[in-house]
Design a protein that fits this description.
Elements lengths: L1 H19 L1 H11 L1 E6 L6 E2 L5 E13 L7 H12 L3 H10 L5 E7 L1 H8 L6 E11 L6 H4 L11 H5 L1 H4 L4 E6 L13 E3 L6 E4 L3 H18 L3 E8 L4 E8 L12 H8 L2 H4 L9 H13 L17 E4 L2 E4 L14 H7 L2 H11 L1 H10 L17 E2 L7 H7 L5 E2 L2 H12 L4 E2 L4 E5 L5 E4 L4 E3 L4 H17 L13 E11 L2 E15 L6 E8 L7 H4 L1 H14 L7
Parallel strand pairs: 2-8
Antiparallel strand pairs: 1-6, 2-3, 3-4, 3-5, 6-7, 8-16, 9-10, 9-21, 11-12, 13-14, 15-18, 16-17, 19-20, 20-21
Helix pairs in contact: 1-2, 3-4, 9-20, 12-14, 12-18, 13-18, 14-16
Length: about 550
């Protein structure tokens, strides 16, 4: 009985090895007699909307060493180290200890250096083609594009977001070796070709991008600001035409040895950070009021209504003041259009309180506040909106003119675009299309309409008012003769540890043209300018500069 039981166990073991474990053992046996060298797939190219190359590749090589196949470890280490300019000691230790079957010595090595090494005919040293990412414009668009790791994997930006499209499928070169890894005399070489990744065409227009880059560098230097940002979008579908965060860094010389610096410079502030928008937010408050008046809401104000010119409001015991002391009489009695021109805080306090918490918050939600836009980019900020259940009247009053609320730059740009483009809120996007390695379009991006916060009529009325802000109000420095430019300035005090930070401001301007049918919308944000800090003086002229460049680039003829 015992013998029969033992026989059954042995038989079961044989069956398991043959039927269940067999394929794994065959693989392990084959692996003992073969060595594979990876062939890295060419990463997909990134181009702008016009097919202009932004990110490409140059052919480089990886160097591998199999210690068991090396004939003279000391000589091998010395030759490799002197050629690559590295310390030979660690390499010699790895070659001598016999604990690893294969060592990756270096990746992304230039062809010239590899040719020098191959001339020495070093036994046990192998080479494989890989690719190094190259960027045509160095630091331009750096926070959007992101960068890759040494193995070519996307680590940030669109390089990371679209990794599965760009990466391709690696191939390999397989050699027959003996049990210790030395290539046999009649080695059979098997080559499995790598499959290149697909490319992506972005909505970015590099001509507009470079114009925005230059404008932001200029205002950064002239204003002494901590940092400056700009986003230009197409209001008809929310495709991003340009995005700049400055200071920046060179994508062809990424500061990998300084993680803190790299994290700071590579962060896309327009998407991942938030700020208190100040008076640019009055565009949304106005849009809500106009729409509600058109719907017959008796609490909303008509375009002809005259707002009381009192400088101070007291709400819940909190005094709310205008930025102006009203000494010039301009803020005395004014319509909504004039309140926008003068950027008079109390008027927008009146609107928010008149609409009430629930109605006003419905509009904020429809404009995407307190939520992500859904842009194709990792790490998007939600923004900050006081929960509806906790909002007091004094909070609501301040939100009306852009305080006690925080947004990302992209959120505000998209919300403003929806307010003036006919009332359509699209999902913002960088992707225009996916293109195969042989240049064929694989997939075309279709704009996604997310919601309609206001009607077309309300939107047109608002756009006309904002054109007046640029013609005769606080946005005069963005005015371009012969072109219908609309916009709104903003100047917000910064807070630190819950208190107003003395002398620290965020100056901004959001503008668009042509105002009757917007094709370009730009948001300029200047963080902590020194000296003059009003958005009308610091940010509005930058938008004008960018718009004038777009007019030249696209050969847009005057309207009037």
């Amino acid at each position: 009985m015992a013998i029969a039981f033992i026989f059954c166990i042995i038989f079961a073991r044989f069956f398991y090895i043959q039927a269940v474990w067999g394929s794994e053992l065959v693989y392990r046996a084959a692996d003992q007699w073969n060595r594979e060298i990876p062939v890295i797939a060419a990463r997909g190219e990134i181009t702008d909307r016009n097919g202009q190359l932004i990110a490409g590749n140059k052919t480089t090589y990886s160097i591998f060493v199999r210690p068991n196949a090396v004939k003279n470890a000391e000589y091998c280490a010395a030759v490799i180290a002197s050629t690559l300019g590295i310390d030979p000691t660690p390499l010699l230790e790895k070659l001598s200890n016999g604990k690893v079957s294969e060592i990756t010595v270096a990746r992304q090595v230039d062809k010239q250096l590899v040719e020098k090494l191959t001339a020495h005919d070093l036994a046990g040293v192998y080479y494989s083609r890989d690719n190094s990412r190259t960027y045509a414009y160095n630091d331009a668009l750096c926070q959007v594009l992101g960068f890759t790791a040494s193995d070519g994997t996307g680590l940030s930006g669109v390089e990371k977001y679209y990794e599965n499209i760009l990466c391709g499928v690696n191939g390999e070169i397989a050699y027959t070796t003996d049990i210790v890894g030395v290539e046999t005399e009649n080695s059979k070489i098997v080559y499995r070709e790598a499959v290149a990744g697909d490319g992506i065409r972005l909505t970015i227009d590099m001509d507009i991008q470079l114009s925005a880059e230059q404008a932001m560098r200029s205002v950064y230097q002239s204003s002494g600001a901590k940092r400056v940002s700009c986003v230009v979008i197409d209001p008809s579908d929310f495709g991003v035409l340009a995005m700049v965060n400055y200071p920046s860094y060179d994508l062809n010389d990424v500061p990998r040895n300084d993680p803190e610096k790299l994290n700071q410079l590579s962060r896309n502030n327009l998407i991942s950070d938030i700020y208190e928008p100040g008076s640019t937010f009055k565009v949304l408050t106005s849009a809500a009021n106009i729409e509600e008046h058109l719907r017959g809401n008796s609490n909303a104000f008509s375009s002809s209504y005259i707002f009381n010119g009192s400088r101070t409001r007291t709400v819940d015991g909190t005094k709310i003041k205008c930025w102006s002391d009203h000494s010039n009489g301009k803020h005395s009695n004014q319509t909504l259009a004039e309140a926008l021109n003068n950027s008079c805080n109390p008027c927008f306090t009146d609107i928010a309180l008149a609409l009430g918490k629930d109605k006003f918050y419905d509009y904020l939600s429809a404009f995407g506040l307190g939520n992500v836009t859904g842009v194709d980019f990792n790490g998007e900020a939600l923004g900050m909106l006081v929960p509806r259940s906790l909002v007091r009247d004094c909070d609501l009053a301040r939100i009306g003119f852009g305080q006690t609320v925080a947004v990302s730059g992209l959120q505000l740009a998209c919300a403003t675009a929806a307010a003036v483009n006919g009332g359509n809120y699209y999902v913002p996007h960088f992707l225009k299309s996916i293109v195969s390695a042989d240049g064929k379009t694989v997939e075309e991006y279709s704009p996604v309409l997310k919601q309609k916060p206001v009607s077309e009529k309300a939107s047109r009325m608002l756009a006309e008012m904002l054109e007046g802000v640029v013609k005769e109000g606080s946005g005069k420095k963005a005015y371009i003769e012969g072109y219908k430019v609309g916009g709104k300035t903003g100047t917000a005090q910064k807070y630190e540890d819950g208190h107003i930070a003395s002398g620290k401001y965020v100056s901004s301007f959001v503008g668009f043209f042509p105002s009757n049918a917007p094709k370009y919308l730009a948001l300029i944000v200047v963080d902590e300018p020194q000296g003059t800090y009003y958005g009308s003086a610091v940010a509005a002229p930058v938008a004008k500069e960018i718009f004038e460049d777009i007019i030249k680039i696209k050969n847009i003829q005057p309207y009037e």
